[in-house]
Amino acid sequence: MANATTINPDEAAHFGKMAAEWWDPKGSSAMLHQLNPVRLGYIRDAVDQHWQLDEHDRHALKGKRALDMGCGAGLLCEPLARMGAAVSGFDAARENIAAARLHAEQSGLSIDYRHGGVESLEGAQFDLVTSLEVVEHVNDPAAFIAGLADSLAPGGLMILSTPNRTNLSHLALITVGESIGGIPKGTHDWNKFLTPEELTAIVEQAGLQVRDLTGLSFSPTRGFVLSENTTMDYLMTITRA
Fold first, then answer.
1. Reported confidence tier of residue 179, pLDDT bands at 50, 70, 90
2. DSSP tag of 193
3. What distance in Å separates the CA atoms of residue 203 and residue 162, rounded to the nearest whole number?
4. HSE (CB half, 13 Å, CA atoms) of 218?
5. What's the pLDDT at 65?
6. I need a surface site. Which of 34, 52, 67, 234 has the fewest CB within 10 A?
């Protein structure tokens, strides 16, 4: 079971400072706004395949509970809620939770936002568990994934994404991204990035199984795209083993 060491207070403070701009597509979270449609497309495909749903059903997650761990100000929670899920969003930064609650209220959405990490779940179970670009920011990735595993209901689906630890990711996300790319300085610690092999081992240690591994690349003409190339960033679809 995860413990309080999963939350890194310095990371929480860093992202908390970005709370006011989280929903501004031209602000400090601009890259997340560019990533979001691609990530949502991946999640929707994974959900449809896992539960054999109609891809045209706008409320495909109706009757299901969804958790987004490390939800920021709710960029993923709100689309999941619109798909019909009963959504809970947890984040280590109180400022983010405040911004998320305000935006959800303004959007007419009912989302259960809470301050805390996996140690705050207290045995709650969810059909869909997501945590995107988060595992590289926690103190103990193994404890973090174990906590997510505990929250995954029988027959449930988990989706993770994280940068790969490669020369390309350092160049794209830190050397360029945090200088002229609009990413706030200090957002990433390259040494905490996990390779697909490392994250797979952690996932399997938690009693889970990787069902799909897809790369997230950047195209000069199309922006962020799903691809077979996992060199910069990647997404994982996971179920119980």
1. low
2. -
3. 13
4. 14
5. 98
6. 52
| Cβ atoms of residues 2 and 122 within 8 Å | no
**CA nearest to 28, candidates 39, 43, 17:** 17
Cβ contact 196:230 at 8 Å: yes
Residue 153 is given by DSSP the state E
Assigned token pair, 79: 């689309």
Query: Torsions phi, psi of 72, nearest 5?
Result: 60, -135
Q: Are 73 and 28 in contact (CB under 8 A)?
A: no
* pLDDT surpasses 50 at 2: no
- DSSP secondary structure letters along 17-46: TTGGGTT-TTSTTHHHHHHHHHHHHHHHHH
Q: Which has the closest alpha carbon to 164: 70, 75, 229, 76?
A: 229
Map out the domains of the chain as residue ranges.
Answer: 4-240
Within 8 A by CB and 6+ apart from 159, the residues are 42, 43, 46, 128, 129, 130, 131, 132, 235, 236, 237, 238
**What is the pTM for the complete model shown?**
0.92
CA 138 to each of CA 69, 124, 144, 227: distance values in angstroms, whole numbers, following the listed order: 11, 20, 7, 26
Sign for the CA dihedral angle at 100, 104, 109, 112 comes to positive
Say if residue 3's pLDDT is above 60.
no
CA neighbor of 32 nearest in space, from 98, 79, 64: 79
Encode pLDDT of 47-79 as tens digits: 999 999 999 999 999 999 999 999 999 999 999
